[in-house]
Design brief:
The protein has about 100 residues and is mainly beta. The protein contains no helices and ten strands. Strand 8 (about 75) and strand 9 form a beta hairpin. InterPro entries: SEZ6_CSMD_C4BPB_Regulators, Sushi/SCR/CCP_sf, Sushi_SCR_CCP_dom.
Length: about 100
C-alpha cells in the first residue's frame, strides 16, 4: 500500500524467491501521482511552480488586456486529474 498521493505500479509482475534468497522479477513500487500539463488557457497561461503532481496547484494568468473569468486555480487530485473549472481569459471591458 502506498501513501496518499502515490500509486502502486508493477503490481502484476511475478516475484519469486530465488535459490540465493534474492527476489527475482520486478518489484512493485510507489510512484507519485502525476496530472501532467493542464489544457492551454487561450490568451493566458498557467503558473505550475509547485509541479504537476498530486496536491500541486496551478494558477492561471491572462495576458495584458485580458482578465480571468472563473477560478484561476486548479489542483491535481488523487485520481491524477486537474480538479476545478478551467478559466477563460476575456478582453477587459472599460466603461
Amino acid at each position: 500500500m502506498c501513501q496518499a498521493g502515490f500509486k502502486l505500479v508493477n503490481l502484476a509482475s511475478n516475484l519469486t524467491c530465488g535459490s540465493s534468497s534474492q527476489w527475482i522479477g520486478t518489484q512493485p513500487e510507489c510512484k507519485i501521482i502525476e496530472c501532467g500539463q493542464p489544457s492551454d488557457v487561450k490568451n493566458g497561461s498557467y503558473n505550475l511552480s509547485s509541479g504537476t503532481h498530486y496536491g500541486s496547484i496551478g494558477t492561471a494568468t491572462c495576458v495584458a488586456g485580458y482578465e480571468i473569468h472563473g477560478s484561476a486555480n486548479i489542483m491535481c487530485d488523487i485520481n491524477g486529474d486537474s480538479n476545478g473549472s478551467f478559466p477563460d481569459c476575456t478582453p477587459c471591458v472599460f466603461s
